[in-house]
Design brief:
It is a multi-pass membrane protein. One of its GO terms (cellular component) is plasma membrane. Its main location: membrane. GO terms for molecular function: ABC-type transporter activity. InterPro entries: ABC-2_transporter_component, ABC2_TM. This protein is an alpha/beta fold. The protein folds into 2 domains: about 100 residues, Periplasmic binding protein-like II (D-Maltodextrin-Binding Protein, domain 2), CATH 3.40.190.10; about 230 residues, no CATH class. It is about 65% helix and about 10% strand. The strands form 2 sheets. Strands 2-1-3-4 form a 4-stranded mixed β-sheet, with helices on both faces. Strand 3 and strand 4 form a beta hairpin. Helix 11 runs antiparallel to helix 15. The mean pLDDT is about 80.
C-alpha cells in the first residue's frame, strides 16, 4: 500500500505542476471571468437611447415619455430641433408620428448609434395608441375595448406518468434539470477526452522511455495501474474543488449584480438536489472512471509516445457519439436513442439528458446506471490483465493487433 501511494503521489504532483494541467484548469476560469466582466461592463455603461418624438399631437409624446425605461428615453421636440440634435449626434434617432387618418410612424436612426432602439417595444406602444384611437372613432366603451384586446389565456401544465398515475411537474424544474444535464454532458465530453489523453500519455511516456522496465522491478504492474488511475482522479477532484471554491468566492458578488438579480427569482435551486441531478452526477463519476480505464488500456498497447494520438481516438469518438446522441434526444425519443441509453460509454451522456427531458423514468435510469457500474467492474478486471501482460510489449503491429495479442497472452497464462 505504501508503494501504491508513492506512485500515486509522484504522478499527481508531476501533473499538478505541469503547464498543460494548469492551462486546463485556469483557461475556463479566465474565459468565464472575461464573459462576466464584459456583461458587467456593458450593463454599467449601457446608456439609454435618446429618441426625439416629432408629432402634431403632444398627448402622444407625453404617453411615450411615460414609457421611458433603461433602454430608451423619449423627448418631445420640433422637427427643426430634432434634425439639429441628430446632426450633432446628441440623440440616437428621430421618431416622426402622424395621427391622421390613423397613427403611423417613421423612425430614422444614426448608423453609428451606440445603442439601438428595440422596434418591437416601440411598435407595441404605438399599436396600443392606435387601438385606443380606433376605439374612440368607433365609440367603444372602455369595457368593450378591454374585452376586445384581452388576449386568450393559455395555461401550460407539464405532467409525467409514474406507476401508471399522472403526476404534475414544474416547468421551471424541467428547464433547470435539462440545462444542468446538458451542461454536464458537455463537461463529461471534455473531461473524459482531456484526462483520457493525459493518462494514456503518462503510460506511453513510461513505455517509450523504457522507465517501465525499472519501475516493474520494485512495483507490480497492478499497483502501478491503480495508482495511475487514482492520481488522475485526484487531479480531477482538485480541478472540481478549485471551481467550487472560485464559484463560492465569486457568488457573493455576482448575486448582487443587476444582470443576475433579474434571473434569481425564477430559479428554484432546490432542483439541483433532485433525483435527476444526483443520477446525473453518478453517471459523471462512473463515466469518468470508465473512460479512464479505457485510456489506460489504450496507453498500455502503444509502443511509443508518437502513437498516443492515434490510440486515444476511440475515446474522442465515443465521447462525441454520446454528445451528438444527447442532442438528438432533444428532438424525440426514438428507438435508437432508447437503445443507446443503455450501452456503456454512450449512456453516461445520453441517459441524464433523457431523464431531464422526462423521456424516461428514474427506474430506467437506475437500470442504465447499474449496467454502467457492472461494465466498469468487468472492464477494469480485463484491462488490468491486459495492462499487466502488455506493459512491456513493444509492438509496432498496430493498436487492434496489440490488444488481440495481449488477450491471447493473458488467456495462455490463465491456462497454465
Amino acid at each position: 500500500m505504501n508503494k501504491f501511494w508513492i506512485v500515486t503521489n509522484q504522478i499527481y504532483r508531476k501533473n499538478l505542476k505541469s503547464g498543460s494541467w494548469l492551462s486546463l484548469v485556469l483557461l475556463p476560469l479566465i474565459l468565464l471571468a472575461l464573459v462576466i466582466g464584459i456583461v458587467w461592463y456593458t450593463n454599467q455603461h449601457n446608456e439609454p437611447a435618446q429618441v426625439a418624438v416629432v408629432t402634431d399631437n403632444p398627448a402622444i409624446a407625453q404617453v411615450l415619455k411615460k414609457a421611458n425605461d433603461a433602454d430608451v428615453h423619449y423627448q418631445y421636440l420640433t422637427a427643426g430641433q430634432a434634425e439639429k440634435k441628430l446632426k450633432n449626434e446628441k440623440i440616437t434617432g428621430v421618431l416622426t408620428i402622424k395621427t391622421q387618418p390613423t397613427i403611423s410612424a417613421k423612425y430614422v436612426e444614426l448608423a453609428n448609434a451606440e445603442t439601438n432602439v428595440d422596434l418591437s417595444k416601440l411598435r407595441s406602444t404605438l399599436t396600443g395608441l392606435k387601438v385606443n384611437q380606433t376605439a374612440a372613432q368607433l365609440k367603444l366603451t372602455s369595457a368593450q375595448l378591454q374585452a376586445l384586446t384581452t388576449p386568450a389565456q393559455v395555461q401550460k401544465k407539464t405532467i409525467s406518468f409514474e406507476k401508471g398515475k399522472q403526476v404534475a411537474k414544474s416547468n421551471a424544474t424541467s428547464v433547470i434539470n435539462y440545462t444542468f444535464a446538458t451542461a454536464l454532458t458537455i463537461f463529461i465530453m471534455l473531461i473524459v477526452t482531456i484526462y483520457g489523453q493525459m493518462l494514456a500519455q503518462e503510460i506511453a511516456t513510461e513505455k517509450g522511455s523504457r522507465i517501465m522496465e525499472i519501475l516493474l522491478s520494485s512495483v507490480s504492474a497492478t499497483t502501478q495501474f491503480f495508482a495511475k488511475l487514482t492520481a488522475i482522479l485526484l487531479l480531477l477532484i482538485t480541478q472540481l474543488a478549485i471551481y467550487v471554491i472560485a464559484g463560492a468566492l465569486s457568488w457573493g458578488w455576482l448575486k448582487q449584480q443587476a444582470f443576475v438579480k433579474n434571473f434569481l427569482p425564477s430559479i428554484d435551486f432546490s432542483v439541483l438536489w433532485s433525483a435527476t441531478s444526483v443520477i446525473s452526477v453518478l453517471f459523471f463519476i462512473i463515466g469518468t472512471m470508465t473512460f479512464a480505464v479505457l485510456a489506460a488500456l489504450l496507453g498500455s498497447v502503444v509502443a511509443n509516445q508518437e502513437q498516443v494520438n492515434t490510440a486515444v481516438m476511440p475515446i474522442s469518438l465515443l465521447a462525441m457519439a454520446g454528445y451528438l446522441l444527447s442532442f438528438m434526444a432533444q428532438t424525440g425519443d426514438s428507438t435508437l436513442i432508447k437503445v443507446f441509453s443503455y450501452i456503456p460509454f454512450i449512456n453516461i451522456e445520453l441517459m441524464p439528458v433523457r431523464l431531464a427531458l422526462q423521456h424516461t423514468t428514474l427506474a430506467a435510469a437506475c437500470v442504465s446506471l447499474a449496467i454502467a457500474i457492472v461494465f466498469l467492474l468487468g472492464f477494469t478486471f480485463l484491462t488490468v490483465n491486459v495492462y499487466r501482460t502488455n506493459v512491456l510489449v513493444y509492438s509496432e503491429a498496430g493498436i487492434l493487433k496489440a490488444i488481440r495479442q495481449s488477450f491471447r497472452i493473458w488467456q495462455a497464462e490463465r491456462k497454465r
